[in-house]
Amino acid sequence: VPGDPASPPDDAAGAGHAPSDRTRVRRKAERGRYDAATVAAVLDAGLVCHVGFTDGGATYVVPMVHVRVGDALYVHGATGNRTLRSLADGATACVTVTLVDALVLSRAAFHHSMNYRSVMVLGRATRVTDPAEQRLATAALLDHLAPGRSAEARPPTDAELQKTMFLRIPLDEASAKVRTGGPVEDPGDLALGLWGGQIPLTTLAGTPVPDEAAAGLPLPPSVTSYRPPANQ
Ligand SMILES: Cc1cc2nc3c(=O)[nH]c(=O)nc-3n(C[C@H](O)[C@H](O)[C@H](O)COP(=O)(O)OP(=O)(O)OC[C@H]3O[C@@H](n4cnc5c(N)ncnc54)[C@H](O)[C@@H]3O)c2cc1C
Which pTM value belongs to this model? Predict the structure, then answer.
């Protein structure tokens, strides 16, 4: 697996320093970011991506778990998975990750908004066939869900890997779009006596619930130290 999952790609081979014609943000262009660090940070903070592709003339958008490793994104699933098979067969992928940070309430209905961080990755996927890369991708996926989990879980067997398809999608055509701050207001609306501002939104982790076989066992570090990534 190229790169280190803990650090963003840092050179021109990374997530791109200039937008492509397809990824250049046109609407609210000042919110567009194309640097590898911003793209990586959003991908790393998101637990779920949405994988868009076209198959048989129809377009599908499928939620999946992802992980970024260096300058690539990995997704995985069963070998019979239609989404993964379509991408492995050459369909162009459009993968998005969206984090909602706040509701932005304006005096005017028209100016209500959200603060968000989002990324869109365009690219063609490559099927990962090297078992060593599959194992590293598996560990990275687990550690993306709960840091440290890969050191606690039983590693996949060869048979389990054979039932799993891993795809690698390069991050060389990617954009981020980020909104921060309070509401945009028409100057005349500020004197209306209406409330405006932000309602921050965060993801909370609840109390861990052991299953029957875990009753009485101490909580492992991945559980005791768990923090939702979107809030870090
Ligand atoms: C949070 C989350 C994370 C997930 N992570 C993964 C993952 O990492 N890997 C993985 O393989 N799968 C994951 N899934 C399941 C995934 O969304 C698909 O259901 C699954 O991958 C099967 O894909 P397929 O292309 O074979 O679907 P098919 O079964 O071929 O889809 C046929 C039809 O079923 C419907 N359908 C399929 N999936 C969904 C869905 N999720 N919601 C509503 N309707 C649906 C659609 O109408 C679709 O056209 C995740 C789902 C969620 C919600």
Answer: 0.91
